[in-house]
Specification:
Length: about 375
């Protein structure tokens, strides 16, 4: 009898770890394949430091071709159709069949949901971040507005972190007194998922740095050639740079496949990350795992943790061994306050009595851990 075929869609944080973890427990008779339209993928988490020149544009990516060394086949192709009934996936490089499917296609951006946002600035995508980096390098004075539209969006600390990094950069450049920095978020408070006390500490940190925080105000439109933003609370503001967090949505091919059952994100069994279709799993930003009043945040650490778990679940089924323990929802994100200090925020999101999360104080050692995290990611350890 031939071996099993494990097919992983998407080579981001989740997909790569699912493939590596399954490979560790499956012998060579079983085939593991990753499909992604990009051979080189970039780590969005480096964008906030990239835009102020504190990360190199040629050091934010990793090549999925390197997975061949680990016994994982990489196919560079666009995925066009997922057929869970026929157990096959159509791609620009042909049709691929599978026994086990891992959907790790992340969140897509709906740039059209906020008219004008597509032509404004952003730091949520590598190309946009590079453009913002060029613009910031020329900036001497004025006003910067960072504006999120609606939750959920990747890494909820990112707009707050980016504002603090821009503050640090402007001080270093000697232009801080000539620069206004504002952050608009749709939530009623920053980092709600981390609890009231953490939320208040982030408010204070922004306040101490002279950064204006406007809550309950999602950006609804960018007009005047990228110079004016309107918000859901009826207010509007003009600025020299308006950078938005795009509306996130499920990729169209995932919605069309039926695995999301018409829901905004793919529902999964929170212990195994399996969808309603057996042996079809959905991990990372594409899924929703409820956690208390919130959901597990859309962040790379959780996508990677879910990937590791799914790899083990699949291997246990192929090898007919005991199922691994249930997924625990543990993870920490970094929140940099400058190029030299970072805090972490996170904890146990599936703890019995509800999420147990903490926000640490920013520190130099926190930034060292962030540097290590980025290095590990580039070397496929995360
Ligand atoms: C500014 C910013 C800061 C962040 N900071 C952090 C942080 O500090 N820590 C942290 O943990 N996370 C952070 N994140 C979040 C993190 O980047 C995401 O949560 C993570 O990438 C999700 O992983 P994933 O595997 O689910 O999806 P992704 O990493 O998005 O991977 C999905 C992959 O699928 C591929 N794909 C999609 N559709 C198709 C298709 N049709 N055909 C072929 N390929 C396709 C894409 O090319 C992509 O490579 C940050 C994000 C941003 C934007």
């Amino acid at each position: 009898m031939g071996g099993s075929k494990v097919l992983v869609l998407g080579g981001g944080f989740g997909g790569v770890q699912a493939a590596i973890s399954a490979r560790a427990d499956l012998d060579a008779s079983h085939e593991i394949t990753i499909v992604d339209r990009n051979r080189v993928t970039h780590m969005c988490g480096m964008n906030p430091l990239l835009i102020v020149g504190e990360r190199n544009t040629d050091k934010t990516g990793r090549s999925l071709g390197r997975l061949a060394n680990r016994g994982i086949k990489f196919v560079e192709a666009n995925i066009d159709l997922i057929d869970t009934t026929g157990q096959k996936v159509e791609t620009s490089a042909g049709t691929l069949d599978y026994d086990y499917l891992v959907i790790a296609l992340g969140a897509a951006y709906d740039w059209d949901a906020v008219p004008g946002a597509k032509d404004a600035y952003s730091f949520y995508d590598f190309d946009y971040a590079r453009r913002l980096r060029r613009r910031l390098s020329r900036l001497k004075r004025g006003k910067i507005v960072l504006a999120a539209s609606k939750p959920p969006y990747k890494c909820p600390p990112a707009p707050l972190e980016t504002a603090m990094i821009i503050n640090w950069w402007a001080r270093k450049k000697g232009i801080r007194k000539d620069l206004d920095i504002s952050v608009y978020i749709p939530e009623l408070g920053p980092l709600g998922v981390a609890g009231k006390e953490a939320s208040m500490r982030v408010r204070n940190a922004l306040d101490q740095r002279g950064i204006e925080l406007v809550t309950g105000a999602g950006v609804t439109e960018v007009s005047m050639n990228g110079r004016e933003a309107s918000f859901s609370d009826g207010s509007s503001t003009t600025a020299d740079i308006i950078a938005t967090v795009p509306v996130h949505k499920i990729p169209d091919i995932v919605a069309a496949s039926g695995v999301s059952n018409g829901k905004p994100w793919v529902p999964v069994n929170k212990a195994t990350l399996e969808t309603a279709t057996s042996n079809v799993f959905a991990i990372g930003d594409v899924n929703v795992v409820p956690s208390g009043d919130f959901a597990i945040p859309k962040a790379g650490v959780f996508a990677a943790g879910q990937g590791t778990k799914v790899g083990k679940v699949i291997a246990s089924r192929v090898n007919e061994t005991d199922a691994p323990e249930a997924y625990d929802g543990v993870g920490f994100c970094f929140m940099a306050y400058s190029a030299g200090t970072s805090a972490t925020v996170g904890g146990e999101f599936l703890a019995k009595g509800g999420p147990q999360t903490v926000l640490s104080e920013p520190s130099v050692s926190g930034m060292k851990s962030k540097d290590r995290f980025e290095r590990d990611w580039r070397n496929f350890k995360i």
